[in-house]
Design a protein that fits this description.
Strand order of the largest sheet: 2-3-8-5-7-6
Number of strands: 10
Structural class: alpha+beta
Amino acid sequence: MNLGLSEIRRTPGRFAAIAGAVGFIVFLALILAALSDGLYLGSTGAYRTTPAQYWVFSPTSGLELSRSTIDGARLEQVAATDGVETAGRLSVFNTTATSEGQDLQLSLLGADANTMPVEIIEGRLPEPEALEVVVDSQVTRKGIGIGSLITPTNGPDLEVVGVAGDAGFGFTTAWAQHDTFLEVRVSVRPELGALEGTSQALGITTDGTTADRIAEATGLSVATPQEAIDALPGASQQKITLNGIVYTTFVVAAIVVGLFFALVTLEKRNEYAVLKAIGMPNRKLVAAIFVQALIASAVGYVFGLALSRVVGLLLPSTVPALFLGETAIALLGVALFMGSLGAIFSFRRVTRIDPANALGGPA
């Protein structure tokens, strides 16, 4: 280890170069990961942030909220099913709107008290029958907060009375009481008046009853929150694709580190031969390279993390990037692992150096 640290102190510029290269790769990975998290979490909050243990959809909906319609009688049937403790409505429609002088694409969700987001980080929930909403926390990046008015096209003004954490569902997301939602929807789209008294899904909590038993008793489709998320068009595929790109960038980082230490080993072939000739074992030489790779990867990660956060502050509010601490910690582990993996490519080259051949000429 002392040999590795001494080498870094003696030639800091060389290791700064590899740390910088790793840092830019990490920066790219962190930006892509933030976009992946922002897009995924910003489109699935309706299922993840409420108390519901299961979601109930109409049988032919394919678990898609936009294709499901459940009337009031079905709500009463589900609520009366053995094992169901609470049942609440959930509906959504998308429309244009304005707020704080901005044009918005609005996802307005209607929910009952037991299907509203759990985490209200500021303000309060909307009152029944009041033209009030809570907005997703990412909406505040647009300058919309408590006291702001959101006005759907051809609809009434909706006052923002709270901010919910991680409750996005596609576009600029606002949550209203379900009866208020129905009032706003028919104002904006009078042709949907025939759907008065219906909802698109039901969120339920149970005493341990399974989804299959509820489905059998009601004839409706029942899904866990994750199953409902997986049914959202493109949500899971989008996350898998972006995460694949993120991890591919770390493969590039491993290749860069591997090439760097391969060149260092080639340049220092004679020095390693001398060290081996005076009795230094292979394990110490290998440990020195391993330590150098870890330090270069760690320094590069810190540089990439700092750069990504600076760029994150400069991104416009329309970019759905979400920088999560748990993602950053996970990618730190990936960066250190891939950096170490890159260094391993040089181990065999070091252990095969023969002092007699190296000092006497090419092997």
